[in-house]
Amino acid sequence: MTNELLELISQLPLFESLPRSLVKKTLNGTLPMVVPRGKSIALQGDRAGSLAIVLNGLIKVYRLFPEGKEITIRLMQDGDVVLTDLGRVGDISYNENYEVIRDANVIFIGKAHLQACMAEHPELAMAMLSVVHTQAQCLADEITLVKWQYLPQRVASFLAGLDPEGSGAVKVRLPYEKTLLAARLGASRESLSRAFAELRAIGVNVQNMVVAIDDLDRLREFSETSSHDLRTRCEGK
Amino acid sequence: MTNELLELISQLPLFESLPRSLVKKTLNGTLPMVVPRGKSIALQGDRAGSLAIVLNGLIKVYRLFPEGKEITIRLMQDGDVVLTDLGRVGDISYNENYEVIRDANVIFIGKAHLQACMAEHPELAMAMLSVVHTQAQCLADEITLVKWQYLPQRVASFLAGLDPEGSGAVKVRLPYEKTLLAARLGASRESLSRAFAELRAIGVNVQNMVVAIDDLDRLREFSETSSHDLRTRCEGK
C-alpha cells in the first residue's frame, strides 16, 4: 500500500482518531478493490464476513421484497462503512443490498481480523462504536425527515445541501440521476417532478442535471422552516 | 444490589453474553432509579454524561423543532438503552428527548466509567457494538416501513405483532394511548382513526383500548403483503 493511500484512508471517520500504526495493522495489507457500476458489494442474505469501507464512489443501499418492490434506505459515499454486527460471534447476514451506482473503490477487512484488532486495541472498538452511532443518528434524522417534511421541502433541503457555503443566485449539479434521487428521498419519480414544479415558484429551475437557484438563501429558508440542520450531519460532506 | 436484580440485568441484550462478574463491575453498584410518568430521562441538547438502561416502563423518543412540532422517532421498552456516542471523547449532547410514558426503572452508568470498563474488557465494547448495531437496524426497518407501507398496513402489522402466536378470532389490548400510537406510526390521530375505519372491512373492531380481530391470519396476510418480519426484530418482545 502506498503512503498516499494510507494517508487517504487514515483520514476517514473510522480511522481519523487512531495512530497510523494501528490503521496499518487494521488494514492488514489489504488493497482497495474496484467495484464497477452495476455490481453489488453485498446482497441481502449473504453471509457477512467482512467490513467494507467505501473509499469513493456511490452506493445505493436498498431492500428487496418478494413482490419485487425495492426500497432505498440510504446512499453511501466516500468514507462510509458497510456495517454488520461486528459484536456478534458466528454467522451474520447482510440485511440490505449494496449496489454500486458510480464506480467505487472499496476496502474489505475480514471480520475475524477486525475483531482480533478490536480486542487488542480498544481504541479501534471505540472508533467503530462512534461510526455505528453516527450511522444510527443519520437513520434517526432520516425518519424525522420522512415523517415530517413534505416532499418539496425535502427536495429544497437536498438542493441547498449541495452548496452549503453558497449564497444568492447559484447553479448546482445533481449528484445522481433523478430516479435515484427520488428513491433516496422516498418518493416516486412523478412526485419528484411535481416537487420540482412547486419549487419553481421560489425560483428553482431544473434543466437536466443542472439546477439554477435564483436565491439560495430563500430556498434555504423554505427548507429550514422544517428541516434545520439534519442533512448536514449525513450529507454535508 | 440484590442477586435477583443482578440476575434480571444480566439477561438484558447488552449484558447477556458477558460474565456475571463483568456485569457487576460495569454496573459499579448503581441502583435503578424510578422515573415517573411525565418526567424525562434526558432532553435534546443536554450533555450526555451517562448511558441509561431501561429496565422496564415505556419511553417516548422524540425531537422538538422551534415551531413546536414534535416528531416521535421510536419507543423504548424493557432492556432498551439510551445511546450516545460512547466512542467519542469529550462533550456529547443528546439528539432527542426521552419522555417517560409509563413509570420506568432506569439504570444510569457514567460514561467515563463505562469507557474505562470497555478499554479493559473488549468484550463489553463488542456487546455495546452489537446493541448499537441492532438499534441502527431497527431504525432502517422503520425507514423501510415509513417509505413503503400505507398506514392501514402499518396499523395491521402493529396489531398482528401484539399477538404473534395467535390465530383466528382474538382480542388484543393496545399497549398505549391512540395519540401515542399515531405518533409512533408517523401519523396524525385523525389518519389513525381513518386507518382503523378501513381495517373494519377485514374484521377489525376497536372499542377504546381493546381491538377485536375476527381473523388474525387474514389481518397478518393483509399486513404481510408489504411488511414481512421487519416488526419482529424491534417489537417482538
Structure description:
The structure is a homodimer of 237-residue chains. With 237 residues, the first copy, chain A, is an alpha+beta fold. Chain A folds into two domains: 144 residues, Jelly Rolls (Sandwich), CATH 2.60.120; 87 residues, Arc Repressor Mutant, subunit A, CATH 1.10.10. Chain A contains nine helices and nine strands. In chain A, strands 1, 2, 3, 4, 5 and 6 form a six-stranded antiparallel beta sheet that branches. In chain A, strand 8 and strand 9 form a beta hairpin. About 3% of the residues of chain A have low confidence. Chains A and B meet through strand 4, helix 3 and helix 4 of A and strand 4, helix 3 and helix 4 of B.
Q: What overall form of chain A do the CA principal axes indicate? A: globular
Overall residue-averaged pLDDT value of chain A: 86
| Oligomeric grouping of the chains | homodimer
- CATH top level of the largest domain in chain A is Mainly Beta
Under the CATH scheme, which architecture of the largest domain in chain A would be assigned? Sandwich
Distance between the termini of chain A: 26 Å
**Largest inter-chain interface?**
A-B, 49 and 49 residues
Beta-strand portion of chain A reads 15-25%
> Based on helices, strands and strand pairing, what is the structural class of chain A?
alpha+beta
CATH topology of the largest domain in chain A: Jelly Rolls
Using only C-alpha atoms, the radius of gyration of chain A works out to 19 Å
Helix content, binned percent of chain A: 40-55%
Low-confidence stretches of chain A: 226-233
CATH H level, superfamily name of the largest domain in chain A: Jelly Rolls
- How many helices of chain A does DSSP assign? 9
Number of DSSP strand runs of chain A: 9
Give the SSE order of chain A as H and E letters: HHEEEEEEHHHEHHEEHH
Q: Report on the biggest sheet of chain A.
A: 6 strands, antiparallel
**Structural domains of chain A: how many:** 2
